[in-house]
Design brief:
The complex is a heterodimer of chains A (186) and B (710).
Chain A (H helix, E strand, L loop, with lengths): L91 E9 L5 E6 L2 E3 L5 E3 L4 E6 L5 E8 L4 E8 L6 E6 L7 E6 L2
Parallel strand pairs in A: 1-9
Antiparallel strand pairs in A: 1-6, 2-5, 2-7, 3-4, 7-8
Chain B lengths: L8 E3 L18 E8 L1 E7 L6 E5 L8 E6 L6 E5 L4 E5 L5 E3 L2 E3 L1 H4 L6 E4 L5 E6 L3 E6 L6 E5 L15 E2 L6 E4 L4 E7 L6 E9 L7 E6 L4 E6 L4 E6 L7 E6 L7 E3 L12 E3 L16 E3 L5 E2 L16 H4 L8 E2 L4 E2 L3 E9 L2 E7 L12 E8 L2 E8 L7 E10 L9 E2 L3 E10 L4 E5 L6 E5 L14 E12 L2 E13 L6 E11 L9 E4 L2 E2 L11 E7 L27 E14 L9 E6 L7 H7 L8 E2 L39 E4 L12 H4 L3 H6 L22
Parallel strand pairs in B: 9-13, 24-33, 27-34
Antiparallel strand pairs in B: 1-9, 2-3, 2-22, 3-4, 5-6, 6-7, 7-8, 10-11, 11-12, 12-13, 14-15, 15-16, 16-17, 18-19, 19-20, 20-21, 23-24, 25-28, 26-28, 28-31, 29-30, 29-32, 32-34, 35-37, 36-37, 36-46, 37-38, 38-43, 39-42, 39-44, 40-41, 40-43, 44-45
The chains are: A mainly beta (186), B mainly beta (710).
Chain lengths: 186, 710
């Protein structure tokens, strides 16, 4: 399937510190665990808000130009839409989180609202987290269900001894159907 | 005309006669006169927060002005002028002019007065001096002001007070005495006789000296302690009156106060309140935590002002985008018996106090202070706290207060800083929390309710917001939590809302410990539905019972101009008898569904198949979710429904379209009668792709003219 070029830009929200990162497909992709762009778009608010509505550009799906006679006609409305009986219209994907060799006593958070404050540091909104978990002997494995628009996340490990936390950003990988976040602190 | 037989002294002033302007009628602020360097300084005090401003640093006299009272009759301040040893009168220019008064012999021998007030129902100043008696000066005739002793009052003048105040309507004087305990006195101005109404305050350090005392129109007496400026409030007509710390005002070694007792105590509109439930002290009526807003001192980057608290679940911070609760981050979990890290962001330098309701009793008790008078400078800092071993796992509240006062209570007013309240979750050691979609966002479940007829596809007949949390230890889910709110209802039919846990049999739920709160109120009805194979949790039988429509609106948040920030809300906690392996748990958002409200009409098609009002027989689920045991399976295959139960293909029409969809965020749903495919043009491309890889974020791109806006 051809991925859609998502043309809408990350909304610049009016309030606060954080900006939700929305624009990702076609914005560089990236398969690594680190953010590919240090100018991470920052997030502005917990997403309890309605989406930004100032840029109502809509995606135009790219249509398959091949004259494939087997292809169903492209639907234009619900009137001619046929949804596969097995298609549950699920709006989420699975992310596998695997943390190894972390401090014995540490606390892991995976969150979606953050901004980069320096090359090594981030300001994270811990109220935006998907997972909050104490490490078990420095390790953690989870399969998480993640909303489709959560295309970029940050993982943080806090220690209790006053030392600096460890951050690692994650970005949705268009090139695989298996999304994963690996964090090895060795 | 009265005859004054014994007038032994006459004080006359011939100085400048300047026409004084009265104050604006019955001002709401309290006046406090202090004389730190002998000459008096007049402050205006907002009793609500204790914030104050200097009204005049020069009242035109060189010695104290004391025993001050505000005249409701002529709107002037009157007080005892120590320099001229007579009554002084001040108007809106705050200049005290000495009055010519004639004193009787007792008054002439009484000296100066630091206890005084002006009555409400007569224009008369009363002054008291221990060992001397009660004296009065009628003020209506400025050409003949006579000061006389209240007959017989000398015998009663044994109590030690530094101010008193007239009650707004019963004509009596009240005062709280000084010392290590404060006793409330009720004084009859016609005799000077005092009645003790009991101890209302007990000092924990030092002695009280209540130099300034005032009333509000509700019969609340406010007393200001000279030593620390603390303002206490006592309702004098209660059967057993007690004092509560109300706010933190200015302190001084000499202190006197006056106030128009018939003026309400406004909090003003430049005040920040908390938003925890009111049992924690949030509303002004509950002496809620409040701070006069200061540009020099606050938490985080935002602070908002409120005329009163908006306790959860109606908090403005829950419902508005400009949530000002942004000064505290909790980068670690709150595990019982463990340490937790708080990240505190402060603007300015002050002291941080924090309380956690560890035992979840709805109050911040004295042993629940987690951070006490912690000095904080400008910037972001780490503060570690200890969660006591006796804390109880579950949802509770925390309150953080930053101010320039080191030790404050979880309630009451402060003249600067900010209060921030947080809903927090306590867990046992080693428990992780998995949120869907996240700890602060919702997924939206949008329903059409004409089933088994397909509707108009505006997908707003019911729109529920839902957040789910799974609490996991060692790979086992111990309990789940739901936060739900009704976001829209564009239907006349009455529907209930419930969640089924597919594959989790009913007996695995610890039924006795399931809790449901509706609008913050604990529900007594058991949410776990009887006679079901799998666990079914009923939030409400009838969503229409939880909302009302705006004027001129047929529905709730689906028509233009029918916006509101109000949301009906529910919180449910569902513990399991024995923890359930994560692999066994259904995927999010489980199986949320609506059902026809029992004994209510739900349309002819639904009625004909069910053989009457359908009630629980009619359920509408997300596509390919299984109905519960209560569902009437005869609906399958009827009218527009093309479900095949045997193939697990349910709640879909002949084109595979469903009656319900999930959108994993707070969704801008279509306006009434605007179709989903017009409001969100990408939806068609998402739905048409069986691989579900096209336009996966279709819900981010609305056509603005077709979606609802508040």
């Amino acid at each position: 399937m051809i991925p859609i070029l998502n043309t809408h830009s990350a909304p610049f929200q009016r309030y606060g510190l954080f900006v939700i990162v929305l624009c990702l497909i076609g914005c560089g992709g990236g398969s690594g665990d680190e953010a590919t762009d240090s100018t991470v778009v920052a997030i502005t608010q917990p997403e309890t808000n309605t989406p930004d509505t100032t840029t109502p550009e809509t995606d135009t799906p790219e249509t398959d130009d091949n004259d494939d006679t087997e292809t169903q006609p492209i639907p234009t409305s619900i009137d001619d839409l046929v949804v596969a009986a097995t298609n549950g219209l699920t709006p989420s994907f699975v992310l596998r989180v695997d943390v190894t060799s972390a401090p014995e006593r540490g606390y892991f958070s995976l969150c979606n609202a953050y901004q980069q404050t320096s090359s090594q540091a981030y300001q994270v909104d811990y109220q935006s987290c998907l997972l909050r978990a104490p490490l078990n002997q420095g390790a953690l494995y989870r399969e998480l269900q993640v909303a489709n628009h959560h295309q970029q996340l940050i993982a943080v490990i806090w220690r209790y001894d006053g030392s600096a936390p460890t951050y690692q950003t994650w970005q949705y990988d268009d090139n695989t159907s298996r999304q994963s976040l690996n964090m090895n602190l060795q | 005309m009265k005859y004054w037989p014994i007038l032994t002294a006459c004080i006359a002033y011939s100085g400048s006669v300047v026409a004084q302007q009265a104050f604006q009628a019955c001002p709401t602020q309290a006046f406090i006169v202090q004389s730190p360097a002998k000459y008096p300084i007049l402050y205006g005090v907002n009793l609500g927060t204790g914030s104050y401003a200097t009204l005049s640093a020069d009242m035109g006299i060189d010695n104290s002005l004391n025993g001050v009272g505000f005249s409701y009759q002529d709107n002037f301040l009157y007080g005892w002028d120590y320099q001229h040893q007579t009554l002084g009168k001040a108007g809106s220019d705050y200049q005290s002019l000495p009055l010519n008064i004639e004193k009787d012999s007792a008054a002439a021998n009484a000296g100066n007065f630091y206890v005084g007030d002006v009555a409400i129902n007569e224009n008369t100043w009363y002054g008291y001096r221990r060992g001397k008696g009660l004296f009065k000066i009628e003020l209506d005739n400025p050409n003949r002001l006579q000061m006389t002793q209240v007959s017989g009052s000398a015998a009663f003048a044994t109590y030690s007070i530094t101010d008193f105040a007239f009650h707004p309507n019963n004509g009596l004087l009240y005062a709280v005495s000084n010392g290590t305990t404060g006793t409330l006195l009720e004084i009859d101005p016609s005799s000077g006789q005092a009645t003790e109404l009991g101890v209302v305050l007990v000092s924990t350090q030092g002695k009280f000296t209540f130099g300034a005392q005032f009333f509000d129109p509700d019969g609340n007496l406010y007393v200001s302690n000279n030593g620390d400026g603390n303002i206490y409030r006592i309702h004098v007509e209660h059967d057993s009156p007690v004092g509560e710390l109300f706010s933190y005002g200015p302190s001084s070694s000499t202190n006197d106060g006056a106030r128009c007792a018939l003026a309400e105590v406004p909090v003003g509109n430049n005040v920040d309140f908390g938003d925890a439930p009111d049992s924690y002290g949030t509303l002004i009526a509950s002496n809620g935590a409040r701070h006069q807003i200061s540009e020099q001192l606050y938490l985080g980057s935002r602070i908002d002002n409120e005329a009163d608290g908006y306790p959860h679940p109606l908090s403005d911070d829950d419902s508005r985008p400009d949530n000002d609760e942004d000064g505290i981050q909790m980068p670690t979990g709150l595990e019982i018996g463990e340490q937790a890290v708080m990240l505190v962001s402060a603007h300015g330098t002050g002291y941080l106090n924090a309380w956690f309701d560890w035992d979840q009793n709805g109050h911040f008790d004295s042993d629940e202070i987690a951070i006490s008078g912690h000095s904080i400078s400008n910037g972001t800092h780490t503060v570690n706290i200890e969660i006591p071993s006796w804390a109880k796992a579950g949802e509770t509240w925390a309150r953080f207060r930053l101010s320039s006062i080191a030790n404050i209570n979880p309630t009451g007013g402060v003249s600067d800083g900010e209060v921030e309240d947080y809903a927090v979750t306590l867990t046992e050691t080693g428990v992780s929390i998995n949120y869907y979609p996240s700890a602060s966002s919702y997924t939206s479940i949008a329903y059409e309710d004409l089933y088994p007829d397909q509707g108009d596809f505006d997908m707003n007949d019911v729109v529920m917001h839902l957040r789910i949390a799974e609490y996991v230890k060692d790979g086992q889910v111990r309990r789940i939590g739901f936060e739900a709110e009704l976001a829209a209802m564009g239907a006349a039919y009455h529907n209930g809302f419930a969640i089924q846990l597919p594959n989790i049999t009913r007996d695995r739920v610890k039924e006795s410990q399931v809790t449901l709160y509706q609008q913050g109120v604990r529900q007594t009805a058991q949410p776990l539905e009887a006679d079901q194979t799998y666990a079914v949790l009923i939030f409400t039988d009838d969503l229409w019972q939880q909302v009302s429509t705006a004027d001129e609106c047929l529905y709730f948040r689906t028509e233009p101009g029918c916006g509101t920030q109000y949301r009906a809300s529910w919180q449910m906690t569902v513990p399991f008898v024995t923890p359930i392996d994560q692999a066994e748990m259904p995927s999010f958002p489980y199986d949320p569904f609506i059902f026809a409200t029992p004994n209510m009409d739900h349309g002819l098609a639904a009625k004909n198949i069910a053989g009457g009002h359908p009630g629980r027989k009619l359920e509408i689920h997300l596509k390919n979710k299984m109905p519960t045991d209560r569902f009437e399976q005869a609906y399958f295959g009827q009218r527009d429904d093309a479900s095949s139960l045997s193939q697990g293909q349910t709640f879909q029409d002949h084109n595979g379209m469903s009656w319900a969809i999930e959108i994993p965020m707070t969704w801008q749903h279509p306006l009434e009668n605007q179709r989903l495919d017009d409001a969100y043009r990408d939806f068609i491309h998402f739905a048409a792709d069986e691989s579900q890889t096209t336009a996966t974020r279709w819900y981010l791109n609305p056509t603005l003219d077709y979606v609802f806006k508040d």
